[in-house]
Amino acid sequence: MSLATEAAATRPTVVTRTFATGDVTARPELIDALQALLRAHGTLYDWAAEVPQPRALRGRAPVFVATIPDRDDIVVVRHAWHGGLLAPLTGDLFRMPTRAPTELLHSWTLRALGIPTSEVLGYARYEALPGLRRVDVVTRFIPNAFDLGMVAAGLAPHIEPDAALAATRDLLVKLAAHGVLHPDLNVKNVLVRTRNRGGLEALVIDVDIVRWNPKRPPIETMRANTARLLRSMRKWRANFGCDVADACLAAFEREALAATPSLAPTTGTGATTGGTTAHPS
């Protein structure tokens, strides 16, 4: 079941404008600024790449942090690339409408459900071959955040791995409670940040591919998400020699399963009402 279908009632307000080589979509308060950046720099990625970086970020390719001119918005600009076995062939070319609209909607909906994730503010699509586009995605910068792989490798100042795993377990519980399955849940797709009021919070990112089924038993969703994440953590440990013992991973899995709610969600989109699950049409 598509999260986009279930979340239609929470669709964010955005504006789309065309330009010479494509189109840009963003929140109304940002559309003029992004359009001006496209006129001046050609692509949003090229603009962000020219800005001095506060610290290096990296996904499948470099990810740049920049402040939108004449605004206080600090954003992350990511150029979209395919992953998987076909990535060398498909590269950065996506069929219309691309994954960007789905990522924006999923981000908005997960946040509305109380599941921490990065806030997608907009995207730009650039014409390539007929029917194909390249894409830049703009999200709000999350300060004091490091991915779980960096934490495990000891590259996240002031974040202890045990505390990061506890925050990640809480995130998985929230995902399971709403039936949110992330097919590519790995150590790079979980961010851990220090809250201003103290403590840690874990966020899930790369949410364009998440699937949502509120009718699925939460324990099944937890098992699937946990298995994917643990597989990634073991692979990360093998590649980088991180000090995460098997006993620690086993305890993480055991505690996550024990904390999983046994009932379907009772609030938010797809809430259980009078014994039946209500879904927006």
Describe this structure in words.
The structure is a single chain. The chain is an alpha+beta fold. The chain contains nine helices and 15 strands.
Secondary structure blueprint with pairings:
Layout lengths: L2 H4 L8 E5 L2 E5 L4 H11 L2 H6 L7 E2 L3 E6 L6 E6 L7 H4 L3 E2 L4 H13 L7 E8 L4 E9 L4 E3 H5 L8 H17 L2 E2 L8 E5 L5 E5 L6 E2 L5 H23 L5 H13 L13 E2 L2 E2 L4
Antiparallel strand pairs: 1-2, 2-7, 3-4, 4-5, 5-8, 6-8, 7-8, 9-11, 10-13, 11-12, 14-15
Helix pairs in contact: 7-8, 7-9, 8-9
Low-pLDDT residue intervals, each spanning 5 or more residues: 264-281
Q: What's the count of strands?
A: 15
Strand content is 15-25%
**Overall pLDDT score:** 86
Protein structure class:
alpha+beta
First-last Cα distance: 13 Å
Report the order of strands and helices: HEEHHEEEHEHEEEHHEEEEHHEE
> What is the tally of helical segments?
9
Overall radius of gyration: 19 Å
